[in-house]
Amino acid sequence: MLLIALTPDYTDGGTIAIKMAGVVLASLSSGGGELSFLGLTHYYGPFSLAAWGSGTGGAGLIGAGAYSVATTALGLGVQETLLVSALLPVFMSISFFVVLPKGQIRQRAVRPDENIAARMADQVDPMYDNEHGSNVGGEDEGLLGRAADNNIDGRPSNGAGKRWRDFWMGFEKNLGRSRSLSSTPFIRVHNLYLPSLLQILNLLLLVSHALFDFIPSVYFIFAIVFWEGLLGGLVYVNTFAEITDNVRKEDREFSLGATSVSDSGGICVAGFIGMASEVLLCDWQVNHGRDYCKRP
């Protein structure tokens, strides 16, 4: 985050490579933190996973909201906002090394069973392949149609209006995801393949809209994106809850971490698939007289 904040803007002679390196480091830190901390949740009781899920879901809402408030209502620039946000990892370190009890962790004995992790990976991978494939490809191009080319009030949107529309799309998804990530103390889903199948239907619906432009209102898009977030959070948190409940205690930490790696791998694969499909869908739209995806 410091690399991104302290590097001059590209228009002021800065290099985009340094900012991209900052993004890569942030991604590595995020993945490493999830891999490590998620594997330790089972030492602190069943509500620790629910708390992890709530924090994961809330981070998208609070992070985006705090950035918007800081850069609009508070009048801070992007650089100042990023520098303030760079202090957050300090509080995370304090919470882990000072606040968190360490007795349970020190007593652990790990003898991993790789077969368990492989079975759980088979369940979480299809879900995230479909969810993030629809995010990057079908969802993006599905939104660039008649339903999304206007502001919420129906007027044609300019660049600023489209940025706010995109913000609300992300907000809707994170809102749905945060609700389901906090649901395990109240609702448990044991058949993890069912949400994957429903997510495939989401993908087919959004790709069909990208091809034929039949969804009449952006509010229907909002509902689909909210539903997508619900499904994604539901399978994420229930996958790890199933591991916590059904895997032997000595295997849980490894299984939780290995399944987290599978989750990240599915997101990565879906991202590449989504980037390719986005180009194909955009070209198809332009060839059929709809240039929504080419508009600024």
Features:
296 residues, mainly alpha, 0% strand
What does this structure look like?
There is one protein chain. The two termini are 28 Å apart. The chain is built from 11 helices and no strands. By secondary structure, it is mostly helical. The longest helix has 39 residues, at 249-287. The model is unreliable at 150-160 (pLDDT under 50). The chain is globular.
Average pLDDT confidence is: 76
Strand-pairing-aware structural class: mainly alpha
Strand residues, percent: under 5%
Strand count, sense and closure of the main sheet?
A: none
Could you give a quick summary of the protein structure above?
This protein is 75% helix and 0% strand. The chain contains eleven helices and no strands. The model is unreliable at 150-160 (pLDDT under 50).
Topology:
Elements (H helix, E strand, L loop, with lengths): L1 H5 L9 H25 L5 H26 L6 H8 L2 H12 L3 H4 L7 H30 L15 H23 L11 H20 L5 H29 L2 H39 L9
Helix pairs in contact: 2-11, 3-8, 3-10, 7-9, 7-10, 7-11, 8-10, 9-10, 10-11
